Amino acid sequence: MVNDLAELDLVAFGPNPAHRRSPLIARTAAGSARLAGIRAAEIASLAELAATSASGRVAAGVRVMDALTRHFHDQVRAAGMPLAPGMPLESGRSSRPTRSAPAAAPSI
After folding, report:
1. Mean pLDDT rounded to a whole number for the chain
2. What is the dihedral of CA 65, 37, 32, 19, to 10 degrees?
3. What is the pTM of this model?
4. What is the count of structural domains for the chain?
5. Within this chain, do residues 58 and 44 fall inside the same structural domain, yes or no?
6. To 10 degrees, the CA torsion angle through 92, 62, 96, 38?
7. How confident is the model at residue 66 (pLDDT cuts 50, 70, 90)?
């Protein structure tokens, strides 16, 4: 997959001072522009979706996703595996402001 991105000039391989045989992969200007376009389209699509969704349903969805994230992070920790650096809930709490306990899954 990375080679395909390189053929499209979306990423480039560079030297890796920490490991001679493994190159570092970085986005090119074209790759950054493509990603910005994807993100802009995603934000527009999400804004359209949010405008047609009841705020209570969105909040319930966020609570469900928070509960799922906590569940899977607990499974990773129980298996003795570290969470990737920068992952939310790394310290056991969400990076979002504290809320009351998650509600039951919404009926949609």
Report:
1. 82
2. 40
3. 0.50
4. 2
5. no
6. 110
7. very high
